[in-house]
Amino acid sequence: MVIIKADKYLEILAKLDLFKGFSRHDLKAMLDASGYEVKKYEKEQIVHLQNEVCRSMDIILEGRVAVQKIDEEGNVLTISVFSAPEIIGAHLTFSTHNFYPMTVIAESKVVILRLSRELIIEMGQSDPDFMAALLQVISDRIMILADKIKTISHNTIREQITAFLVYEYHLQKSHVIKLNYSKKELAERLGVQRTSLSRELNKMRRDGLLDYDARTVTLKDAAFFSDC
């Protein structure tokens, strides 16, 4: 883990809704005055351990991280993946129970900016739009978690796959769902074995529900999008 300078990432930060009310000069001055941290992690390094106290809000400047849960049998369930310039820990920073419920792992080389509670409060006082945008980020994260819980609560693998595809259909607004990860990564997201996922996808293809290749899934059955 290496501490590096934040100046080169000001352009990235300035494009985020959180900081649209700050000039680059004011943003740099506020960061410099408040003792920010910018840290770099190598692939597969732990960014935050489960049950670690959350003391800051993290902004991913480069790379991507995965929020993972490992069960008693050693199976890995990937709850969410966040990429630059997304934010993690926003909903925990001001919580009375500010412990990371799961482990955060670097899926690639990652650079993260950490903003302390005190700096977040200062920015909110300086710019109400910052606080409004932050509340939106927190609300969106809660909805993502609720959707994930709903997905993994389904009993069968087919139900889990269907719930995932319906969610992605609404998100991508296309019958051709683009997968930005491998079948192994998708299996981890759904909390199932890769072989079980492949077997069920083959059954769904034979049943005429969908077709797929390495990077896309094409929905063929109206049941996937009948509620649109």
How do the strands and helices of this protein lay out in sequence?
Layout: E1 2-3, H1 10-14, H2 24-34, E2 37-41, E3 46-48, E4 56-62, E5 64-70, E6 76-83, E7 87-88, H3 90-93, E8 103-106, E9 110-116, H4 117-126, H5 128-152, H6 157-172, E10 176-178, H7 183-190, H8 194-206, E11 210-212, E12 216-219
Antiparallel strand pairs: 1-2, 2-9, 3-8, 4-7, 4-9, 5-6, 5-8, 10-12, 11-12
Short description:
The protein is built from 8 helices and 12 strands.
Descriptors:
single chain; 228 residues; alpha+beta; Jelly Rolls; Arc Repressor Mutant, subunit A; 2 domains; five-stranded antiparallel beta sheet; four-stranded antiparallel beta sheet; 8 helices; elongated
Describe this structure in words.
- It is built from 8 helices and 12 strands.
- The protein is an alpha+beta fold and 228 residues long.
- The chain folds into 2 domains: 2-152, Jelly Rolls; 157-224, Arc Repressor Mutant, subunit A (Orthogonal Bundle).
- Strands 1-2-9-4-7 form a 5-stranded antiparallel β-sheet.
- α4 crosses α5 (128-152) and α5 (128-152) runs antiparallel to α6 (157-172).
